[in-house]
Amino acid sequence: MLNFDQAPKRATNLSLNSAILDLAKEMGLNVSQTVDRLLAEEVRRRYKAHWEQRNRAAIEAYNERIEREGTLGEQVQRWLSDPSG
């Protein structure tokens, strides 16, 4: 899936709620690291949702075929247990 571990850092400007930012700093939070982690989680979540939406028809067709024909393992098992085969 998405891997951001090796990407270089880039400076950016953010506008954050000042009260939250002050409290986060008082708590010793690394704001850049926290925002980076949370943003990566949200990007992954949205990427997954978009991928699932784009591939919904194929996933449904695959699931219908498996329901109708069974998995490859089930098909082989039926073939091996067929006395006429």
General description of the model:
- The chain is mostly helical.
- The chain has one domain (18-81).
- The chain has four helices and no strands.
- It is rod-shaped.
- The model has no long low-confidence stretch (mean pLDDT 94).
List keywords for this structure.
85 residues; 4 helices; mainly alpha; rod-shaped
Q: Report the helical percentage.
A: 55-70%
Biggest sheet overview:
none
Mean pLDDT: 94
| β-sheet strand percentage | under 5%
- Overall geometry comes to rod-shaped
Total discrete domains: 1
Query: In terms of structural class, how would the helical and strand content be classed?
Result: mainly alpha
Low-confidence stretches: none
How many strands appear in the DSSP assignment? 0
Counted by DSSP, the helix tally is: 4
What separation lies between the terminal Cα atoms? 42 Å
Please state the oligomeric state of the protein chains shown: single chain
Q: Sketch the topology as an H/E string, one letter per element.
A: HHHH
CA-based gyration radius: 24 Å
Task: Describe, in short, the structure shown.
The chain is mainly α and 85 residues long.
Present the secondary structure layout.
Blueprint: H1 18-26, H2 31-54, H3 56-69, H4 72-81
